[in-house]
Amino acid sequence: MERPYLELSAWQLAIATSLILINGAISALLGLGLGRRLLVAAVRTVVQLLLVGLVLEWVFRFSRWYVVLGLLAVMTVVAGLAAIQRVGFRYPGMWLSSVVSVWASSWLMGAAAVFAIVPVEPWYAPQYAIPLLGMILGNALSGISLGLDRLGEELIGRRPQVEAMLALGATRWEAARQPIRQAVRTGMIPIINAMMVVGIVSLPGMMTGQLLAGVAPIEAVKYQIVILFLIASGTALGTVGVVLLSYRRLFNSDHQFLHQLMKESR
Amino acid sequence: MRAREPLVKACGLRRRVPGGDELLLDDVRLEVFPGERLAITGPSGSGKTVLLRAISLLDPVDGGIIHWRGQPVIGDEVPAYRGQVIYLHQRPALLEGSVEENLKEPFRFAIHRARRFDREHVVALLRELGRDESFLEKPSRDLSGGEAQVVALLRAIQLRPTLLLLDEATASLDPATVAAAEDLLSRWLADAPSDRALVWVSHDAEQTRRVADRTVRMNAGQCEPER
Q1: Which residue from A57, B28, B163, B189 has the least number of CB within 10 angstroms?
Q2: How far apart are the first and last CA of chain A?
């Protein structure tokens, strides 16, 4: 039961875009000094989204598996690199741990989605594969980012305790277990919180989009439920993955804590 | 007496400043024999702490090797080695929780799991250091630097190690407790002189004279015997 869907004209877009003047006026009146940044943000919003729209138009029309996979791969690498941007520490090869974790966890969940849960024909149908993986990636990214950040905080802040345990005969795992647990918890909490309040405090973006496109509410809800569970598992796997890969990098097989590899980056 | 095999033997230890060329340890050779009380002296920054940490295998070295009873120690043998050769830091790191919880913690490690926390033994040791049983209930965050050193010393000794590497481990104690700790360690050594040894790093020359029967001096990452 598809409902009519209203297409937007360039004029309508322009009206919406002009709303940025409200932000500009506030900045000017209160002397926030945000004018330049608002302008850049507004231009980036329009340009980036229009570019994505053009790329997607082309991919949707072309619809070959290698094109779709190529685009998904680019999205995945960008997500992996973006995940470490706001992390408060660095170690050599951290970007690789992040990319590997986001790749393995998101593609596993993406495969579960298009092969088992939403049996799409063909499996690479861009209309499904791209937004599904995109949503999984976006959340895995923030789980990885938060988990890594917390791991660094714990290992740098608790280095004396970690070393004291090693000095008393703890294995590297016994010494690092507490920081690892804290890091994984921190990475998983936002998605758990989101699942707690979903539908009560806010309507999730995908569901909102489907409603706007005229999909029956109960159908939109079903998709939202599926995607939330995919996101939750993807985030958990991505967070565990990046934390364990970092642990393997920061503790060597001689049970030494290679703290000198860690550099704070804030 | 020196015909015996050393407990620990470090050969050609080298360590550079991470990311630099300056040598923290420059071809250090050191042997520690059973029954020995060895003091390592030298100015600040001469590499004493770096050497003790290298012997306890806490830091990777750029060259050289540590032999334990004639065998190199690698990989999964390292935790068991560290259970025998315990390094005590000048500012001990305690975990959250009470003193007793801190003392129990090592028994959760795989290498100590076969043994149990022996409360009576610990209380007896505490008495020797001028503390009573109630000390066990104290939260670790309320401890002074000296009290933390008492906990760290007990936490190590109760594990019946073979070699203790003491890095200014009594520097924050009051004089009476320092004397008690030295007595405790002397008796600990005398209990099994053929199987135990002590290495001290201390800035206190008086203490070095009291506790050591051999001294080596470190200078700019190199080790020179004094006698």
Answers
A1: A57
A2: 53
To 10 degrees, what angle do helices A126-157 and A217-250 make? 40
- The one-character DSSP state at A33 is -
Residue A199: the pLDDT is: 87
Contact between chains at B78 and A254 (C-beta distance less than 8 A): yes
Element spanning B200, H or E: strand B197-201
Q: Which residues contact B101 (CB under 8 A, 6 or more apart)?
A: B95, B140
CA distance A154 to chain B (A): 13
Region of residue A252 (phi > 0: left; psi between -120 and 50: alpha; otherwise: beta)? beta
Give the bridge partners for B2, in sequence order: none
Residue B74: closest C-alpha in chain A: A254
pLDDT-based confidence at residue A2 (cuts at 50, 70, 90): low
Give the start-end residues of each E strand in B18-134.
23-32, 37-41, 63-68, 71-72, 85-88
Q: What is the pLDDT of residue B115?
A: 93
A59: tokens are 């991919």
Decide if A187 contacts A147 (C-beta within 8 A): yes
Q: Would you list which residues of chain B are within 8 Å, Cβ to Cβ, of chain A?
A: 18, 56-60, 74-76, 78-80, 82-84, 86-89, 91-95, 105-106, 108-112, 152, 155-156, 159
Question: Quick one: what percent of chain B has pLDDT higher than 70?
Answer: 98
Helix (H, G, I), strand (E, B) or coil at B71: strand
- Give me the pLDDT at residue B193, please: 87
Kindly list the structural domains of chain B, giving each domain's residue range(s) and its CATH number in brackets, ordered by start.
8-225 (3.40.50.300)
- The three-point CA angle A228-A231-A193 to 5° equals 65
Interchain CB contacts (distance < 8 Å): A and B: 79
Contact between B218 and B46 (Cβ < 8 Å): yes
Pairwise CB contact (< 8 Å): B82 & A167? yes
Token digits for A58? 């082309």
Report the residue from B58, B92, B155 with minimal CB separation from A166.
B58
B179-209: b (≥16 Cβ within 10 Å) or e = ebbbebbeebbeeeeeebbbbbbbeeeebbe
Q: What is the pLDDT of residues A181-219, one digit of tens each?
A: 999 999 999 999 999 999 888 788 889 999 999 999 999
